[in-house]
Give the backbone structure.
Amino acid sequence: MERVTLRIPKQQIDEVEQLVETGEFPNRSEAIRSAVREMINEQNDGRPERAGKRNWAKV
């Protein structure tokens, strides 16, 4: 795996930490990897009417 450094608003990190604390994910890295996989899967779902309509920059 490759290491990536990124900045995420504190509120989002707190929410990710909560997912880890409740056992939904084993750690923050896996939670973020899961979110990236989901984003990629949604972008590649083959439905042209959704192409380019995602706003992934929501805070």
